[in-house]
Amino acid sequence: MRLLVLLLALVTLAACAAVTGYPGQPDSLPTTVTSLDQTTLKALVAEYNNPGTSADRRMAIRNQIIYSDISQIDQNFNDFKVSINRQQNLLSIGTDFVSLTLAGLGATIGDAGTKAALAAASAGVIGAKASIDKDVLYQKTVTALVTEMEAGRSFVFAKMLTSMNSDVTKYPLEAASKDLQDYYQAGTLINALEGVNESASAKATDASARVTAALSAQYNYSPTLSKKIESFWMPDGHSVNAANQARLLLCMTQNNTAGSIPFLINGGADADRSAVISCLGL
């Protein structure tokens, strides 16, 4: 029994190994490509602020500092993504592995009591996995948030790349520092949530505007033009006059007016209504 417990512990540890979903980086690629140490950074900032430093040199220093900070922010963001992905995958894959192992041990061990215990444990693990699978919304939400973060970071990065072509009078180090903060913030969950909310709000506003426009087009009743056609079509206000309806349809055909008579009355263009009214001699 002790051997069984030990095997289960080893299997569990193996199942809980970091499943990141990311391949390992080659040894030739440093974790931070252009990261500056604090001593070098302070020296560069001092040289940048020296009145005797040329404009071209100050521009080069500014860009070097920007790329250094971008490199550090990128590495931290990548670590953050790996951590999120690991948390998503560990329990899902781990429970599969453990349940399979428990079932396999149950098939190979002869003792009835042990088999029953293993079967119960396997069922419990599978039940936990089923509960996890119900939480698909969480995984999809994380994916959506990471996508939002990537989009926000790309937007700020493109802005910085454009600005780095300008000299330090137009894009000083202080302005670059503000953009770097924005670049960092774009890779946070809080900022991603705000971005998703803003996007949803913008879509809702756009959808509302489209509905309003559609309704305006569909129910464009004119108190004068629409009323004239409606009165001609239904003189008593309730029943359609067949002879008048035939004349109405003929005038609509002659003037290439699309749609039905109700649409002409309630949603047609004023130009079409005027043309039909003129054709009818009203």
Report on the structure:
The chain has 282 residues and is mainly alpha-helical. The chain has two domains: 184 residues; 56 residues, no CATH class. It is built from eleven helices and no strands. It is elongated. The chain starts with a helix and ends with a helix. The N terminus is likely disordered.
Number of domains: 2
| Helical residue percent band | over 70%
Count of DSSP helices? Answer: 11
Sum up the overall morphology in one term: elongated
Strand content: under 5%
Strand count: 0
The computed structural class is: mainly alpha
Overall average residue pLDDT: 75
Compile the SSE list and pairings.
Blueprint lengths: L1 H14 L22 H12 L5 H54 L3 H22 L2 H28 L9 H14 L2 H30 L6 H9 L8 H13 L6 H6 L3 H11 L2
Helix pairs in contact: 1-3, 2-3, 3-4, 3-6, 5-6, 5-7, 8-11, 9-11
Summarize the structure in short:
The protein is 76% helix and 0% strand.
Keywords:
2 domains, 76% helix, single chain, disordered N terminus, 11 helices, mainly alpha, 282 residues
